[in-house]
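One example copied in:
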Amino acid sequence: MTEISSDVVIVGGGLAGMTTAYYLAKAQVPSVVVERDVIGSHASGFAYGGLSPLSGFGIPGPHADIAQDGMSLHRELGKSLLDETGIDVDFRERASLALALTEADVRRLQAALPWQQRQPGYAARWLDAAEARRVEARIADETQGATLIEGGAGVEPYRLVLALTRAAERLGARVRHGRAIGLRRDGGRVTGVVLERETIACSTVVFALGPWSAEVADWIGVPIDVRPLKGQILRLQAPGPPVECSVGWGHHYATTKTDGLLWAGTTEEEAGFDEESTSAARDEIGAALVRMLPAMADAQIAHQTACLRPVASDQLLVLGRVPRLDGVYVATGGARKGILYGPAMGRAIADLVLDRQPRVALEAFAPDRFLR
């Protein structure tokens, strides 16, 4: 078995892994990124890319600060990566319109509104049905009201991962194809990552394996209680003008992206590691789309995608240093907010590796919490 060396090895070439590599490279610490498939070939490359920091599990709560940090970093990356690589990651300001189609929807959305209205940098307000229709005229007749939030954005996730990869490589990072099958250790210190055909000697390892993160539990002596949550998206040729804002209802959404297609999603499927698209998901998404925007009944499907999102059993991020094993870190659990959180996750891990104080508190996301 051949052996190469690197100070830092990052296992996983999705958004969390590549932002870690990027921020380390910016600090003149090169790394080797090991990806068993293709960079950005799973959830990071097929996600919707909506950046909505004022809603989602743990917001308000333990995810609120990292959501804001992720948003701030996305704003920076949208500009800096274009300068560094020439790749436009399609960062665009975009309002979101969350529809209330039932009384239960009204109660849920209005309960969240007071906290949302206190957040600096955003404008959140309740609209009655007539006001909501002035934002997007095609919403359902049954709309009872809506929350309009301005200050969010969207990004094209695959371009973002590609730009991060190119920028990191120009600063000395390397990407290798391979599958990690174990760690090499000397007592409580990591000394290398074992791949199928080679070993990479190193003093630091970052596991950013998304829904496959549980595979490393035996190597690090800590259970990583993460499972895949399948989500599917339709991209459609839609009639009429673009849907400029992100229209949402519950966990469903729709907006026109810069490719000119209407992106609509999503499902939440407990399907193990099955990444195949299905007709059942197509029908579910289509039905929700038509309920939100009845005029889209004639939209034609151009493409259907599926991906697996990593979700921890308590639905919180798994982010930080592994105890009792020097130089090992885990970054996973972004679930439906993985694109928003990704840059903040990578920046936080890079700060830990560089022995710097992370910009956000990580205690709630400690990888060893599943031991307790």
Observations:
- The mean pLDDT is 95.
- The chain is about 30% helix and 30% strand.
